[in-house]
Protein 1
Amino acid sequence: MKRSTHHILTTHTGSLPRPSDLVGMVLGKEAKQAVDEEVLAMRVRSAVAEVVLKQAEIGITFLNDGEQGKPGYSTYMKDRLTGFEGESTAAAVPGEAKDFPEYTARRAGRASPIRPACTGPIAWKDRDAVRKDIENLRDAVKEVKAEEVFMTAASPGVVPHFMKDQYYGSEEKYLYALADALKEEYDAIHRAGFVLQLDCPDLCMSRHNRFSDLSTTEFKKIADLHVAALNHALRDIPADRVRLHMCWGNYEGPHHLDIPLREIIDVVLKAKVGALSFEGANPRHEHEWVVFKEIHLPDGVAIIPGVIDSTTHFIEHPELVAQRIVRYAEVVGRENVIAGTDCGFGTFVRAEPTIDPRIAWAKLKSLADGAAIASKRLWN
């Protein structure tokens, strides 16, 4: 994985705005409506080319396919693996929803992703989907200048958050069944020459909803198990070709029950990865840059702090972005910082995106402009 050796590299978390016609096709497929698969595949391919070009044009140097063909960053596995035929029970009500019921009621009408349950053995049924993802991105990046290319994948631990186990009977058995299956996707991405990003919000977000009834000590034991399963799936990929994204949930809300970074960072750093992506721009977590003053960042590990928020329509000023980048660089070293986003701009396909697409791209342009300012300060 390339480092910021002469300027600050820029990236994002993975999902990017999708064209409205593609959104309609993907939502139609999710609703079991008749969709011309050939037309859908062609539109995904052209959308990947468009989103790659857009990233390069605005100055994103560590780019990807924007997850254009996936209905959700974690739930896409239901279409590729066997065993997901049931229906998950309703998600646990997070503590913050109980504390602010009026706010929760106002959000209740939002559409939720399709959430089947695991009701049988997990195995591959559509390896071709991974091949197409790789082919689309590989062809798209031929047309642009990119310093590094990454592709995202669901971690073993995030799948149970959305798709409950009704077959394996224990968290550990379910996790390792997922890890063994997902390893094929991870290895294929690595063989293609892309950096693999594992999306692991389960290491933070699950604390205040799925496992809100546990103590912090008990939750950290669960998180340890998730990291162990992740490492099991990554055993044949060099750490410097993997980045991990952790977050507390990509939604605008109270977040007052989020587990503090300093309480979970020791578990996260057990993952065999070369870079750690995390929230660093929103009002709940921006202050946690000081955690990196308190810990030893392992040799060979870079950080990808979010320097723009992904849940509001504020377009961050490039000067603010630069200040955030420099702050981290002064703590861990400029070569160990890659500028990123708090989370994605298209986590799940929705008819009404959380962030207006034009504003999302404007925020990413501000990220690139701020990184250019920071680079001048850090290398001149």
Protein 2
Amino acid sequence: MNPKKKGILILTPFFSPNIGGVETHLNDLVTALDKKGYRIFVQTYSPITTKNTKWKKREFGGNFIQITRYRWFGENLFHKLENYPILDFLYLTPYLLIRSFFFMLSNARNIDVIHAQGLNAGMIGVILKTIFQKRFLISLHAIYSNIDCHGLSSLMARVIINRADVTLGMSKAVNNQFDQTGIKLRNIEKYRYWVNLNLFKPSNLKESRNKVGIDDRFTVLFVGRLIPVKGIKLLVEIAQELDQIQFVFIGGGPLEFFLKDVSDQNSNIKFFGQVQNIHLPYYYSSADIFCIPSQYEEGLGRVVMESVACGTPVVGSNRGGISEALSETVSILVKPTHNNLKNAIKMLYIDNEKLKTLKNNCRDYAIMNYSEKNLDLVTRHYD
């Protein structure tokens, strides 16, 4: 068989139209693989963390893309369970395993490689690999801080990773986390996301602000899941102290009602809820600074890449994989304390020359580091 015509089974609990960084990456991955001639089969759920979104059970696209979504329950239940790995596993894994098993019974001859996204899908991949004798890859998109050294979650992670033919980690931070929990990664490869540089590109500042409906003021933007460890409340506190600066929040999650309340009470805080990926470039281009104040170890932080591609520099946390995606030429990264982040934002608000220099560096940095050439780090393991 021509290697470019291999069948790839993508296993993931989360896929578009669910909104998130991993979902955006997987959509880019599927589209790019299809262009290269692979036959793509996706097994996933209906949107779990994105509300009021239309979705199709079966979707066909490109030259050969087949997406099957299974209706699942518990809108935003994932956010409540993600700190409890066993409950999270029981919520996300068994039903998708059953459906994927029956899919493979009918389609095993069309599948050459099973590519699981995350540890929950990874357990499904292990079982399908064992039964159907297929090549198995797993991509690790996050740092799993809820995995201890000796518990059941650690044992499960060890089984999954040891059975994978190749483990793809988004950053050194992801890989190091498993080392620290005593899990030795075999056949580990680091690879970086890429962004659609034709979609995420700079637009005129004033036109972008008119399009998204924000004031012509110095603007700080946040895009991401609205969960406590993302530093949402910390950034709101900073916004309340810097009322001369406009702070714009985009995303969905448990802190939505909190942000709606503070945006009603503070004229310099705006909350837009969840925004479809195709519209995000206008929000990035309308901001002077993008801020990622994460209080935990981010696996990579795709949003910072999208922002830089749109010409908007980053102020944020130096934790996890964020610092691997950026350099000091396009960002200011600090220990994510209140004073550190506030001072970094104030500095760029005051120092227009410094801000202009960072902005001027952004697009070239994105072209150099975030292009689709990063796909080759994945496809070489399919063959």
Protein 3
Amino acid sequence: MGRMKDFKRFMSFVGKEFNHILRDTRTLMVLIVMPVVMIVLFGFALSTEIKDVKVAVYDPSRDAATSRLISQIDASEYFTVTAFIDSEEGVLEAFRSNSADIALVFEDNFYHRAVHDSDGRLQVIVDGSNTNIGSMAVFYVSSIVSSFQKELAQEAALNQAAAGGSSSSAEAVPSVQIHTSTRMMYNPQMKSAFNFVPGVMGMILMLVCAMMTSVSIVREKERGTMEVLLVSPVKPFSVILAKAIPYFVVSAFILLIVLCLSVFLIKVPISGSLMWVVLVSLLFILVSLSIGILISTLVSKQEVAILISGMVLMLPTMLLSGMLFPIESMPKVLQWISWCVPAKWYIDSIKVMMIQGLGIRYCLDAVLILCGFLTVITGLSVFKFKDRL
């Protein structure tokens, strides 16, 4: 009998705990959805492969050989030819306008020099600010060019035989050579830090601003001190704003530390305008703060705020912002979802200004999208905050 009572008591505790979990629907949803989200994102996004890399071509010779090689590169699953350039000066503009991730620059009389002089030259220019794409793109281009070189050698041998040349293998196979050289734009040494630092900046600012702000406000709710603050003469939104300002100051200080470490320790230079890098970063801090305030209006427990911040903010920032993996290599559905991740637009902007050294006009669309995020999320936060009151 004693053991039976102990078992019933134990089962009652188990049932009570289940009731707690089932009653807290938000926590239950997070516990169920997070594993699903992680499996889907890691299954599709966690890939070092490249796909649909944008290729610009400068081909002054415009002969049958270069056309075939360009077609083979375009036909591969890794590349998509997006632009044909009329001059070598247009290559830089193609990178600036984001119409190319790599550029192929053929020399004049490419076919004649490759087959008859054994000295065909092809320069592959890569956007080194994205090391994930850069190194893999060079590898795949080199592989396609190597296969094409063998095709040219076989065709030259057949043409020679058809013209009545020697049938001996030593003389029948001409020495066809295509020399491929590589030039890395913005990141000549292909340092991974050039791709890593903007992503880390986005991750740190998002977590510090959003998570800490939401947890701080929810903590006030749990302790019952939020009600005390709200009955004071100060307007409710002013109370929330007053709690967010310290985190804005802390985040600005963290931004200063990250920039100093990047420049002086990691040796990642700020190639563009420091003023615009700081201003866009402050805009992203405001977006992150507004997200934290919105989360605080939706939950009433610190644990739930942390879980939601981890699932809604950290995972998408890591996997869908281009911080770790090329967005171009993801399925279309995940690419569309990445447009809803504020960190993606911030990281894109910082890469353009800090790494590529370009002006604000080359990332103005991303900055305007961040402004849109700030307006919409702040409006939702104010609406939900008043609604909860």
